[in-house]
Amino acid sequence: MYSKSDFTFTGADYGFEIKDVVAKDRQSPFGIDPYLNPARATIPQYNFRLGYFINNHWDISFGIDHMKYVVQDNQTIKISVFDDSPLTPYDGTYNNYDISTTSDFLLFEHTDGLNYINAAFRRSDNIATIEWLSFNFTEGVGIGALYPKTNTTLFRKERYDEFRWSGFGFDAMVGVNAKFLNVFFVQSELKGGYINMPNIRTTNSTADKASQLFYFGQINILFGGIIHLSQDS
After folding, report:
1. 142: Cβ–Cβ under 8 A, 6 or more apart, which residues?
2. Is residue 232 part of a domain?
3. Which domain holds residue 119?
4. In total, how many domains does the chain have?
C-alpha cells in the first residue's frame, strides 16, 4: 500500500511537478510458479531477511523488500510547470492544471522492483509456550537505501529501465510469530515506513531526472528457520 506521491521532473528543456499521484503494487497470482520455482523466485513481490540474535530478546538483521510500485494509468492529477522552457510536447504555462497520465505523457513504475535494502534492530518477547510450540511478539525499526529498477517512458522518449541507487527510507514493524521445535517459525507482521527518492533517472539522458517521496505499508506472512550456533542457544 502506498500513499499518494508528489513528483518533480527536470531535464535540459523542461521542469514540472505533478501532485497526488496514485500508485499501487503488482501482485503475482499465488501458485507453485513463480513463488516456489527457484528459477523465478525473484519475479513476485517478496521480503528476504537474514539476522543474528545478540541475546534471547534482541537481533540485528539485513534484508531486502522487493516491492512493486506502479503509477496508475489514466488518472487525473495536477501539474505545475516551473521552468520557462516549453514542456514538450505540452507547450504552454500550467499552474495546478489537470492532466491525465496517458501513454503519450508518462508511464512510470518501479517493478523490478522498488528494492528497499535495509538493516533492522528488533526485539522479541515470549507470549506463551506449549511444549514444542511457542508464541512470540516482535517489534523493531529499520533504515535503508532504495535501489529500484525504474521503468519509465516520458513524452514518448526512449524507455528507461535500469537499476539505480535512488534514495533512502525508514521503517517500523510489529508482528507475532509461532515457533515450532525452536527451529521453524511462521510470522505475521505489519510494516510501514517512509521513502524519499531524490535521484530517479527517467530517460537515457543523464539530464532527465525525477524525485518523489511517499509512505508505504505492508501486510506480511513470513516463513523462516533458526540455526543454533551453540547447544545452549
Report:
1. 118, 119, 120, 121, 170, 171, 172, 173, 193
2. no
3. 5-225
4. 1
Name, in order, each residue with C-beta under 8 angstroms of 194's C-beta and a sequence gap of 6 or more.
169, 170, 171, 213, 214, 215, 216
The answer to whether the beta carbons of residues 166 and 113 sit under 8 Å apart is no
pLDDT of 158 strictly over 90? no
120-131 residue pLDDT tens: 999 999 999 999
Contact predicate 197/213, CB 8 Å: yes
Q: Does 233 map to a domain?
A: no
Cβ burial of 71 (10 Å; 0-12, 13-18, 19+) is: buried
Enter the pTM of the model. 0.91
**Per-residue pLDDT tens over the stretch 47-94:** 999 999 999 899 999 999 999 999 999 999 998 887 655 555 566 667
What region, left, alpha or beta, does residue 179 occupy, with left being phi > 0 and alpha being psi -120 to 50 degrees?
beta
Burial code (b: 16+ CB inside 10 Å, e: under 16) for 131-170 equals eeebebebebebebebbbbbbbbbbeeeebeeeeebbbbe
Backbone angles phi, psi at 91, to 5 degrees: -65, 140
Please provide the DSSP assignment of 193-216 as one string: EEEEEEEEE-SSSTT-EEEEEEEE
Choice among 52-56, 93-97, 193-197 with the minimum mean pLDDT: 93-97
3-state secondary structure of 155: coil
The per-residue pLDDT for 88 is: 57
